[in-house]
Amino acid sequence: MNANPILLQKKYARIIELFAKENGVSLNKALDIFYNSETYKLMSEGVSDMHCMSDEYLVQELVKEQRI
Q1: Cα gap 66→5, rounded to integer Å
Q2: C-alpha to C-alpha distance for 66 and 38, rounded to whole angstroms
Q3: CA separation (Å) from 39 to 4, 28, 42, 53?
Q4: Which among 12, 27, 50, 59 could bridge 43 via Cys, Cβ 3.0 to 4.6 Å?
């Protein structure tokens, strides 16, 4: 399923902001981490309706990716 592109961009922005806040990194660093992540890839491709998951869940997925 494909999400509305405008709504998806807003979701990306919320995730990046929340990730930066919770992990004490700059927005630029969070932006870089997000757009180079597997989470972003899955969301942008519409895999498993990742875009339907909560912002908090997706931030935790980013955190998990950073530990690997």
Answers
A1: 26
A2: 10
A3: 18, 17, 5, 11
A4: 50
